[in-house]
UniProtKB/TrEMBL annotation:
Chain segments annotated as transmembrane: none
Superkingdom of source: Bacteria
Protein name in UniProt: Nitrate ABC transporter ATPase
A single GO molecular function term of this UniProt record: ATP binding
UniProt xrefs under InterPro entries: AAA+_ATPase, ABC_transporter-like_ATP-bd, ABC_transporter-like_CS, ABC_transporter_ATP-bind, P-loop_NTPase
Phylogenetic placement of the source organism: Bacteria, Bacillati, Actinomycetota, Actinomycetes, Micrococcales
Residue ranges of every copy of the ABC transporter domain listed in the record: 6-240
Length: 262
């Protein structure tokens, strides 16, 4: 059996004042194996990003438990075993790209001693940014900035990577280039990944499994296996298997959205 990178057990979360609380997550359970890429998709308000924030330790669940690589979220975060890529790159404009990727290494240097660390220059080269190390974020395209942010998230060689719609602000052509770049990097590194997206093709191309969530309250409706062979390249988009999976996922979304067009 594959070791669990992430184990979410019966997690619930509500927001709002007493008497007007809204349940955003209801009894959510999910296991992501080490080296497994799992995407979460669903309608707005289904709790996708809230689930990711609970797993990241950014917010506490009201009930249930989350384990990361066999440890509590707090212990895993302290050991830098969680990598997080938000929707916005959040690069410091006055630092070079290389210095932005190095930034996590400059915080609490004593605690970082002895930790597994990836070479920032090698990471940038892996994401096709070897030529841009000494440039500033404002000199890069949106896609290049997001790649730099992803490289930064890998600098501590985390056990798991949490990604919250990292390509959502990009146009479709740029987005496709970035997802293929991420896929190529992941296929040679194989971290456990929890990836939030609104894009059906993106979820299929990247994932081993797709978690379809329903809303009001947010819950897992079903999990769809993606049986496309790896390594995957852009040719996969044109395959009959890909198109059939796209039909299956869109049908699932159509059902959880009460028949709304997907």
């Amino acid at each position: 059996m594959v070791d669990a990178g992430v184990r979410v057990s019966n997690v619930s979360k509500s927001f709002g004042a007493d008497g007007a609380r809204v349940k955003v997550l209801d009894d959510v359970s999910l296991t992501i194996g080490m080296g497994e890429f799992v995407s979460v998709i669903g309608p707005s308000g289904c709790g996708k990003s809230t689930l990711l924030k609970v797993v990241a330790g950014l917010i506490d669940a009201d009930g249930g438990k989350v384990e990361i690589d066999g440890s509590t979220v707090r212990a895993a975060a302290a050991d830098k075993r969680i990598g997080l890529v938000p929707q916005s790159p959040a690069l410091l404009p006055w630092r070079t790209v290389l210095d932005n990727v190095r930034l996590p290494l400059t915080v609490n240097r004593r605690a970082n001693a002895g930790r597994a660390i990836r070479d920032p220059k090698e990471l940038l080269a892996s994401f096709g940014l070897g030529h841009a190390m000494q440039k500033y974020p404002g000199q890069l395209s949106g896609g290049m900035q997001q790649r730099a942010a992803i490289a930064r998230a890998f600098v501590f060689d985390p056990a798991i990577m949490l990604m919250d719609e990292p390509f959502s602000a990009l146009d479709e052509m740029n987005r496709d280039q970035q997802r293929l770049g991420l896929l190529e990097f992941w296929q040679s590194n194989r971290k456990a990944v929890l990836f939030v997206t609104h894009s059906v093709p993106e979820a299929i191309m990247l994932s081993d499994r797709i978690v379809v969530m329903a809303a009001h309250p947010g819950r897992i409706d079903r999990i769809i296996d993606v049986d496309l062979p790896r390594p995957r390249t852009e040719e996969a988009y044109a395959s009959d298997e890909f198109r059939e999976l796209e039909r299956v996922v869109r049908t699932a979304l159509h059902e959880v959205m009460g028949g709304a067009h997907v």
